Automatic annotation (TrEMBL):
Organism taxonomic ancestry: Eukaryota, Metazoa, Ecdysozoa, Nematoda, Chromadorea
Protein known as: Histone deacetylase
Length: 79
């Protein structure tokens, strides 16, 4: 288990893997996302494939919390 500065903890069960995923990672743009060079909905397909192959199940995924301001400013400029 690891703890964040805000006191929130991430507890991994014995069947969980450190695969962090949230459905919001799949960005769509009213069907025109396929025109963009970056495949913004690939993560959902990756997770679906891993589940289909019985390599993971929904309960083995870790859903992230929103980052704290301090966490954001470690990697992003305050501007």
């Amino acid at each position: 288990m690891s703890e964040r500065e805000d006191g929130q903890s991430y507890c991994l069960n014995s069947d969980q893997r450190p695969i962090v995923y949230h459905a919001d990672y799949n960005v769509t743009a009213f069907g025109i996302e396929h025109l963009h060079p970056f495949d913004s909905s690939k993560w959902g397909r990756v997770i679906a494939y891993l589940k289909e192959m019985k390599l993971i199940k929904s309960s083995t995924l870790v859903e992230p919390n929103l980052p704290t301001f301090e966490e954001l400013t470690r990697v992003h400029d305050r501007k």
